[in-house]
Amino acid sequence: MPVIAVVGGQWGDEGKGKVIDSLAEKAKVVTRFSGGDNAGHTVINPYGEFRMHLVPSGIFYPGVTCIIGNGVVINPAVLLDEIDNLKKHGVDISHLIISDRAHLIMPYHTL
Fold first, then answer.
1. Bridge partners for 52 per DSSP
2. Is the Cβ–Cβ distance between 36 and 105 less than 8 Å?
3. 64 lies in a domain?
4. Which helix (DSSP H) or strand (DSSP E) does residue 43 occupy?
5. Does the keyword GTP-binding apply (predicted)?
């Protein structure tokens, strides 16, 4: 099975999200392997307009397994807000897998 990896060589704002969104429809798995909610990209599709920060943009395609990997730093409040917004717009999130080894931002980590 061929693998396509989209990796940034700079410090963000490179257009990775737009590329991933265009490739996601034909993928079997879309994985977010690192980073946190400090970055994001906008996805516009029939469900609406979404600002994605943690959930992989493959979530909009029912046959695509989406994984938030163990290298991702998860702010639980941000993740729950993102999931709630997706559900509110009718997006099925049952194919989202979150690593039990992902890092968590706890309230005492923020100033």
1. 41
2. yes
3. yes
4. strand 41-45
5. yes
Render each residue's pLDDT in the chain as its tens digit; 111 residues: 577 777 777 766 666 666 777 777 888 899 888 888 987 888 889 999 999 999 998 999 999 999 999 999 999 999 999 999 999 999 999 999 999 999 999 989 887
Residues catalogued as catalytic: 13, 41
Please give the sequence-ordered ranges of beta strands (E in DSSP) within the chain, or none if there are none: 29-32, 41-45, 48-52, 65-68, 73-74, 96-98, 103-104
CATH value at residue 90? 3.40.440.10
Contact 21, 4 (CB under 8 A): no
What is the H or E stretch that residue 82 is in?
helix 76-88
Neighbour count for residue 59 (Cβ, 10 Å): 25
Question: 52, 40 in Cβ contact below 8 A?
Answer: yes
